[in-house]
Amino acid sequence: MSEKWSGPLERIDAYRWRIPESFRKGMRVPGLIYADEKLLRHIKGEQSLQQVANVAHLPGIVKYSLAMPDIHWGYGFCIGGVAATDIKDGVISPGGIGYDINCGVRLLRTNLTLADIKDKLKNLVESLFTHIPCGVGSHGQLKLSSREEKKVLREGAQWAVRSGYGFEEDIDFTEERGCLAGADPSKVSPRALERGYKQQGTLGSGNHFLEIQVIEEIYDARVAAVFGLEKGAITVMVHSGSRGFGYQVCDDYLKTMGGTVQKYGIRLPDRQLACAPLSSPEGKDYFAAMACAANYAWANRQCLMHGTREVFMKTLRMGPKDLGMELVYDVAHNIGKFEEHTVEGEKRKLFVHRKGATRAFAPGHAHLPERYKPVGQPVIIPGDMGTNSYVLVGTELAMQETWGSTCHGAGRVMSRHQAIKRTRGRSLLREMEEKGIVVRSQGRNTLAEEAPEAYKDINEVVEVVHQAGLSRKVAKMRPLGVIKG
Amino acid sequence: MKRNYEIINHTADLGLRVFGETREELFANAAAAMFAQITDLEQIRPHLHRSLEVEAPDREELLVRFLSELLYLFTSGALLPGKFKIKRMDDRYLEAEVWGEKFSASLPQLKTEIKAVTYHNLKIDHDETGWKAEVIFDV
User: To probe the interface with A, which of B61, B115, B136 has the most A CB atoms within 10 Å?
Assistant: First the structure.
């Protein structure tokens, strides 16, 4: 199944590669891939470039089918893909957002340094593992009534804060203020609601994690200071999404859109790209349901953050002021949104699909919190298990070239199955401990599936977006303790 | 016994190539192969029984809907199925019986979370030797 790429790929510069529109009949725009020669060697060995070309077939796609350097083979869209469609004649595609709608990351800063927690690290990890529900199909302590669940879907993180899980400031530092407008719970199936009511406030499994980190390096002191980050300080990263609720929403609407493709006479090279015109009833319904899932995820990460705050305060016997655990920013990396962008000098409203890509808005953008307007949006890039994570900042160039988007993480190079095979007989737990990282994990295979060599080198991926100018490096973190599902 | 499925390497996700002598067997084997990724099938006791019906516009979609239905049975907490039988089917309709038990802490540990059954590279073929399907899961 893994046919190698044999199509054309034109070098624009050291970090930009183009698949010309002429490659396949039906492509409406060219493909544009951000990568260096080294990353490209791997990318060419799988079907992800084929997928970039497939996405270029979507009706109403504007300018390019884009791929970030962490691109890897997904289903339908590649992971690391960005596509904007025109709101008048363009489409919305559930496959361009993914099953885990609003999977994303939030980064918390603290007043703590390594010395403050060194002796208590094991206790902290143990206590987080006990208090934060994680693992396959994990259920939370929160069981929502049907009325309450609908509030979550409409209000997102704002529901969580109003219900006592966090502070008003947390909302200011969440993308979209933690609530995507246009959510309509009546467009969500009873099944999605059933899967959602008991999973709020849970981490999940797979590559989701909660990690205690220390800031190892600062690249841009001015921007880091605005974000509240200093070398040697402790940070916490939360990586999770909309859980079973989001998977069900995606599933339901892929089913619907299998039919709309025929109804609206849309021709597609892959069934998983199923879509509907943004202006159609099916397209509008999907957006309203997808927004519910996005809000579910923002509420989820807000609840997870609240649980983390409580564990830190209790374990370290500190008050909230001394701890200073504040939200730096929360980003979504599987989402679709209506945004205004400049296309050939003209302001246009577009629908931007980001699947495994992060919004990276430039300084001065109206959607940024006041504090960050002078410097730009923080971009949170989680590393894979045992490796570095990064904070970047959005740039004007990203606004011009990628609809204000950048990479989302390392990107896999090995299937989960290969990773399990490759790591047989090794104790990943011990390897992590030897690096000084405390790990607690629920699932039997999770550690092996997420072994560091299953991923691209995060440092290389970040270097490409930095060099290409899609975002700039601000800080690098190193993991100290991690809980996984 | 001849292994009735194999794993397809897919970078992000999990792919299965499933075999069966008949269409009915192919569908039952696909269900068993999917749950074999989630947990140890042999350890699931067939205490509970469920019947289900699935409809779809074509054979490929029927497979996705059937597997999604089973995944839903599991994720909703109703039943972790371990044994599958297709009672009757054509290309757009099937009736199946499944046996399993309620998921609880005493059950074998779960290995992998399957988020969804995808339509990506979905294939069902047959020739004189039997039936073959390829399905990719989001994990």
Answer: B115
